[in-house]
Amino acid sequence: MKFNADKLLWLLILLPALPFIVNAYLDTPYAPADTPAGMVSKTNWLQNSQRDFAPVTNRQYQTECGSCHFAFQPGLLPQRSWEKIMNELDQHFGDNAELDTQLQQAILYYLTTNSAEHSHYLRSQNLVASIRPDETPTRFTDTLYFKRKHHQIPENQVKGDQENGGFSNCNTCHQNAAQGLYNEQDILIPDKKPVISTMQ
Amino acid sequence: MKTKTVLLLLLTCSPLVSTAANVVEERLQTYKTAGAKNFSAAAGQSLWNRQFEQPDGSKARACSSCHTTDLRQAGKQINTGKLIEAMSPAINPQRLTDAEKIEKWFGRNCKWTMGRECTAQEKGDFLKFIQSQ
Fold first, then answer.
1. Which residues in chain A touch residue B80, judged by CB atoms under 8 angstroms apart?
2. Are B63 and B109 in contact (CB under 8 A)?
3. Where would I find the beta strands (DSSP E) of chain A?
4. What residues contact residue A8 under an 8 Å CB cut-off, 6+ apart?
5. For the segment B88-121, what is each residue's pLDDT rounded down to a tens digit?
């Protein structure tokens, strides 16, 4: 290839744009090999059919809402719950999770369009059905659905457990929670003993 | 052939644009225009470890509550138990490489820990301290 000043000029103009192009690509649902902890790394139909909740597919959400805790799947709460949570981020369960307006709006959009009532996953639909229309839970762990599934686990085993962070850290017990998998073969309680036998 | 060389050269150089050193330097300049000066890692360290009493009587809070006093070690989000990777850029090269991220966490963490925004001087001291670890 012949080298000339014209080409170099184009190169200089285009190169700085490269990170933005890559970034724009990464903002859309994606699945690269170096997936950050908590994001879906691979999808095949078999795994898909076993999933309990649709996994997280939005990188901004994963980064911003996965920095202090497990990034909960949007299908774990109805739209009105996400709206409430996203509108009081500076008073977030005793913490400050505020975002600038642009990010807040982008994440709100992702959450509401993928919320439980917009998910075709059976568990999300059952969850919605279990919440009274006049209720707006801000915790999945407060829902009747969650309580029914976890009533055999003694609360004091996880409540206020500084080491493991209580029930909200789904992935301390559900080893593949980030993939949207909550079924029994993946469960370990914090003391690292499988609990399936005692739980059934 | 030559174009390729230039391309490769520029590509290998571009990551250099946002190292911790560059980003911190740019931040410090910004804080200076806001009136801050003589940034000190020692002042940053003592503020980092200072316990702030809470008006509501809850447990006193410090930056070290979550990040620990040893920035080369991982810390833990005390409200959720989630691991926080080491703050030291020497151990964790991702740290202090994104001005927006730094300001976002200053915003949240200063308010949560100290009950107010950090001043430009305090932010500069913190950055000097974190960078020195």
1. 68-69, 165, 168-169
2. yes
3. none
4. B3, B6
5. 999 999 999 999 999 999 999 999 999 999 999 9
Where would I find the H helices in B1-133? 2-13, 20-33, 41-49, 63-67, 99-114, 120-132
Backbone angles phi, psi at B124, to 5 degrees: -60, -45
Q: Which of B79, B84, B112 to mutate to test the interface with A (most CBs of A within 10 A)?
A: B79
Give CA–CA dist B47/A65, Å, rounded: 27
CA distance B40 to B121: 9
Right CATH number for B41-133 from 3.30.43.10, 3.40.50.2000, 2.60.40.1930, 1.10.760.10?
1.10.760.10
DSSP B86: -
**Considering only CB atoms, which chain B residues are within 8 Å of A69?**
77, 80, 82
**ipTM value for the complex:** 0.78
- Spell out the domain ranges in chain A: 37-186
pTM score, whole prediction: 0.81
Contacts of A17 in chain B (CB under 8 A): none
- Residue listed under structure tokens 């926080």: B84
For residues B105 and B87, the answer to whether their CB atoms sit within 8 Å is no
